[in-house]
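During the reporting period the student researcher (J.K.) took over the structure-prediction task from the postdoctoral fellow and processed the backlog of single-chain submissions. One of the processed entries is reproduced below for the supervisory committee.
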Amino acid sequence: MSRQDVTAIVVTFDSAHALPECLGVLRADSVPVIVVDNASTDDTAAMAEGQGGRVIRNARNEGYGRANNIGVRAADTEFVLIVNPDCIVDRGAVASLVDAARRYPDAAFFAPQIVEPSGRVFYQPRSLLAASLTNPGGKLVLPEGEACAPFFSGACFLIRREAFLRLGGFDENIFLFYEDDDLCRRVADSGSALIYVPQAVVRHGRGRSSGDKPGRVFTSRWHQAWSRAYVSRKYGLPNPAPGMFAVNALKTVGASLTLRRKLVERYGGSAAGAWAAMRGRKAF
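J.K. obtained the following C-alpha cells:
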C-alpha cells in the first residue's frame, strides 16, 4: 500500500539511464512518484510510465526549479520528496524523514545523509547565501546526529508542501544551480528550521541525472555562472560576474590550445554565463 503522506517529485531530462533504479527503489518503498520530464529526447517519459510513475511532459526544458514547482503543485500530499534521478533512496529513508518531520513541527525542510559513489558523505559546509553559521574556510565537520543547519543539498530532501508553496517554491528565474541555496535561505528567513536526518540515507550518483552530450558541459557551466551572479544580486552581495568572466575567459584561451573539448566547454561556458549576467540577460 502506498504512503498517503508523501509524494516523490523527480525532474528528468534525458535521464533514461538513471531512472529505473531511482524509481524502482521508491516503488519498492511504496512511495508514489510524479516525474516531470523536461522535453527529454530519449525514452525517459515512457520508461517512467512503465515504472508506474505519473508523468507530466513539459513541451520544453523548463529547468530544475520550474519543473519541480510544477510537480509539487500537482501533488496533494502533506510532504513532497524532491529527488534527483541519479539518487537512490534507501529503504526506510522516507519513513525516517517523515518521522523527523512529525517530531519537529517547527521545521519545514528535512535533509537525508547523502552518500557519494566514493563513500564520502556530502554535507554542505558553507554557502554563498549563509546569513548565519558562516564557515569561510569550508571545513567539513559532520554532525553526530540530527542537527539544524542553514543549508543542504537540493539533490534530495523532504519538505512540507504547504511551506514550499507558501514560499513560492524554487525561484523560477533560475534555470539551474543555486536554486537550493536560495530556497534554504528563504526557509530559514521565514523562521522555519532545516533539519539533518542522518538515519535517512540516500546514495547520489552525482552528475548522472542527464546523459553526456557535446555542449552539455558548456550549458551547465553557463547556468552555474549566471545563477551565482543572480543570487548574489538578489541578496545584495558583491557581483562576482566580472571576476568570473576575466578568469574563465583566460582559461578558455589556454584550454583551446590543448584541444580538450570538455575543458573548453567548462571555461567557455563559465565565461559566457558571467558575461550574460553582466549584460542583464535572463536564464531562459
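The committee noted the following: The radius of gyration is 19 Å.
J.K. will present the remaining backlog at the next meeting.
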